[in-house]
Specification:
Number of helices: 4
Order of helices and strands: HHEEEHEH
Strand content: 15-25%
Helix content: 40-55%
Number of strands: 4
Shape: globular
Structural class: alpha+beta
Length: 125
């Protein structure tokens, strides 16, 4: 039983986007919006506030209709953040998917996120 539980924990840490990674408090989200830096990309926007530790919130722009497309974009952004997490600077991130990203595939969205992080210096050296 212990080995199965250890395996599940390892899988969640390696492949998951767990609750420990998420920003859930409204006060924290407001603080990132008000005091943080804003970076606009073609398909993704990033609000960033430098702090100890890394936490993320995945959001969508207002007016995105159709749950299927919206949830697909949300899954793409979660996967992009999960893969990029070890290379990102410490801080609070709010990643917002834009309407333009709905019709684009995963690779274009990832390229836009990577380009934006490189341009604004969000990668670790």
């Amino acid at each position: 039983m212990d080995s199965w539980l250890e395996f599940k924990i390892w899988m969640r840490m390696k492949f998951g986007f767990g609750k420990e990674w998420r920003i859930k408090e409204k006060d924290t989200i407001k603080k990132v919006y008000n005091k943080g830096f804003f970076y606009r990309g073609n398909l993704v926007n990033i609000h960033f506030l430098p702090e100890n530790g890394k936490k993320f919130s995945i959001r969508m722009e207002r007016g995105i209709k159709g749950g299927l497309k919206r949830n697909r974009l949300r899954r793409h952004l979660r996967e992009i953040v999960r893969k990029a997490n070890p290379s990102l600077k410490s801080g609070l991130y709010i990643i917002t998917g834009r309407k333009e990203a709905l019709m684009k595939d995963y690779d274009l969205t990832k390229d836009d996120f990577d380009r934006l992080c490189a341009k604004e210096g969000l990668w670790l050296k």
